[in-house]
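[Archive record]
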Amino acid sequence: MPPGMYHSVILHRSFDAERVNEIVNHPEVRPLAGGDGKSWIDMTRVVTDQQCYTLLGPHGGFCFTWTAPQTYEVHAFILPAGRGKAAYRLGMMCRDYMESVGTLQLWARIGRGMDHVRHLTVTCGFKRCGVLLSDGSTYDLYNWRPECRQ
C-alpha cells in the first residue's frame, strides 16, 4: 500500500491516559500486553511523557517510547474489532507519522508465542535483528528504519 493510502482511518496523538489504560487493560488486550498478563497496567507516565508518542485510532493504537535520540520502542494495543487489516493500516499510519516527526529507528521486542504480533510487525516493514533475554523471558527483536521503507 503506498504511503498515505489508508482508507479513512482516523489517527491522533493522545495524552488521554484514561482511554489508553481502558484499552490496554481490556480483557481481550491485557493478556497480550506483557508482564504477567493479568495485573493492571498504568500507562499514565508514558502517555503523558512529551518524549513518547501514543497514537490512537478507533480501536486502539501504538505507543512509541523514547529509548535514544530519534529512536523509539513500539508497543501495540489493539481491540479485537481493530485487528487484522485495520491494525495493519493503523500500524502503517503510525510508522509514517513517526517518520514525519524525525524518527530514524523504530524497534520492537516480541515474546515467543506472539505470532500475531510478529506477523503485524513484519507486515509493517520491520526486520528481525536479534534476540533479547530479559527478566527470564526471550524476545525476538525487530527493527525499522526509513531507508528500509517497504
User: Anything to note?
Assistant: The radius of gyration is 14 Å. The longest strand covers residues 60-68. The helical segments are 17-24, 44-48, 85-100, 115-123.
